[in-house]
Specification:
The chain is largely without helices or strands and 203 residues long. The chain has a domain of 126 residues: Leucine-rich repeat, LRR (right-handed beta-alpha superhelix) (Alpha-Beta Horseshoe), CATH 3.80.10. Helices cover 14% and strands 10% of the residues. The protein is built from 2 helices and 7 strands; from the N terminus they run H-E-E-E-E-E-E-E-H. The protein has a 7-stranded parallel sheet with strand order 1-2-3-4-5-6-7, with helices on one face. It is globular and about 55 Å long.
């Protein structure tokens, strides 16, 4: 017990050092670790049981280890890393409302991503995806979907029946969508988050 407490304290101290702050408490709700040259998910994140927002963008991550234990996450940015796959365990993060995995090397998505029924924004652009799970159409709260710069040749048949307000796709897929769906998406995840936090309604 005492050893576990010591391990937690040491891990949280290391996390604080990465962010140039004096301390990170286990009750912390937001962590920014973008552009830290990380090759692995830092130890200690698993102790942040109240974490709602996590930025791990612009690193060199190829696996996500214990991140799937963070079931309170609502915003997760994994953009611009070296991910080639997402674990089926992503289906455990059912509180997620914003998920960014753009600019990675993903070739497919686990079907468990369709369990994230609270998603409002999903950024999948700049990967190597050839398709997305058909069950993605069950994400009825999804308002923003970025799919451009992949290798997709078709979209799920019912995607036009979703409540999407913003979608980006490659030119070859534009024929599958009605013109009113082909509107511009906010330029950054920050824009999305600011709107979400100020209104609790995105877009």
């Amino acid at each position: 017990m005492e050893r576990n407490l010591q391990n937690m304290q040491e891990s949280l101290k290391t996390l604080a050092g990465m962010m140039d702050i004096s301390i990170v408490s286990s009750g912390c709700s937001a962590i920014g670790l973008g552009d830290k040259h990380l090759t692995n998910v830092p130890k200690g994140l698993e102790y942040l049981t109240a974490l709602e927002t996590l930025y791990l963008d612009q690193n060199q991550l190829s696996n996500l280890d214990s991140i799937w234990k963070l079931t309170t996450l609502e915003i997760l940015d994994l953009g611009t890393n070296k991910l080639t796959h997402l674990s089926p365990q992503i289906g455990q993060l059912t509180a997620l409302q914003v998920l960014a995995v753009n600019k990675n090397q993903l070739t497919q998505l686990p079907v468990q991503i369709t369990r994230l029924t609270n998603l409002i924004s999903l950024r999948l652009g700049d990967n190597l995806l050839t398709h997305i799970p058909k069950g993605i159409t069950r994400l009825t709260d999804l308002h923003s979907l970025r799919l451009s710069d992949n290798q997709m040749t078709f979209l799920p048949a019912n995607i036009t029946k979703m409540g999407l307000k913003y979608i980006t796709v490659d030119d070859s897929l534009r024929r599958d969508l009605p013109p009113e769906k082909l509107t511009l998406e906010p330029q950054s995840l920050l824009d999305i988050c600011l709107v979400w936090w100020s209104n609790r309604i995105v877009f």
